[in-house]
Amino acid sequence: MGTPTFAANILIELKEQHDVVCVYTRADAVRGRGKALVPSPAKQVALEAGIPVREPDTLRDPKEIAFLKELAPDAIVVAAYGKILPKEVLDIPPFGCINVHGSLLPKYRGAAPMERAILDGEAETGVCIMRMEEGLDTGDYCISRSCEIGDQKLEHLAGELADKGAYALLTALYAIEQGEARWTKQDDSQATYAEKLGHDELMLDPADSAVMNARRVQASSDAHPSKCQLAGRGVTVLDARVAAGEDAPELEPGQVALQAKNLYMGCSDGAIRLIEVKPDGKKAMSAASFAAGIQNLKSQGSTWGRL
């Protein structure tokens, strides 16, 4: 049971060593300017492998529960599925429902663990193989793997955690099957909650710090882009860094500067240097190429702000 690329990458490894009898995922969603329905990454992997796919609106439907019971799975693996599993489903597989969760539990339980870790400025995060129960990510875990966050964008961080999670999952499933898994109880007093991202939570704002705006870009994705208005144009900022060093210009919040072919945007306490952007209605390009298309950028005193 899973939906995004994180889940798809785990499924790729799982299906090579286990008989995956069915994949549950979110329904096809509208993507792109053509408004076409696009299957989830997990569904695409399943279809290519000839694995049956189901996309129920809820797992509380008695007919869906009956179907799951007929499948008689030894275990149910969950990775960023996006739906709650009721007790009736949790009780079906004899080896339990096993979740690949993208954090070092008990920190960042919830829907957006990787994004929240980036936004909070964590030095590291990780992945845990957890035994699911009725509470939200409260179950015992048997394996955890960590990794440094550094400057990794969300896409790359999710890829690394999916790789680590896939191999940890295979190890855990073998140990569970052999009755040798050693489970660690979570310390609830250390728990934090990774709330789902708001619709415009990653929008850039010159009234905020350079660090906060850079983290928003780092945590952004197609589903939650970091956008702003730059020189009168709507722009998605795909990559940016906090401006540092002697060459970084001193800018007021909302000011824009092109210096040594680098494009800077002023924030409340400094500036960020843009690396890659995607102007509305156009393809992604370097910030320098975007700046080259703005006539008299230096002399006009161009500005930026929230959309």
Automatic annotation (TrEMBL):
- In the UniProt record, does the keyword Protein biosynthesis occur? yes
Keyword Protein biosynthesis assigned to the entry: answer is yes
Q: Which domain of life is it from?
A: Bacteria
Where in this chain does the entry annotate a coiled-coil region? Answer: none
The record's InterPro entries line, in alphabetical order, gives: Fmt (IPR005794), Formyl_trans_C (IPR005793), Formyl_transf_N (IPR002376), Formyl_transf_N_sf (IPR036477), Formyl_transferase-like_C_sf (IPR011034), Met-tRNA-FMT_C (IPR044135), Met-tRNA-FMT_N (IPR041711)
Give the signal peptide range: none
Q: Which HAMAP family match?
A: Formyl_trans
- This protein is called Methionyl-tRNA formyltransferase
Q: Which organism is it from?
A: Slackia heliotrinireducens (strain ATCC 29202 / DSM 20476 / NCTC 11029 / RHS 1) (Peptococcus heliotrinreducens)
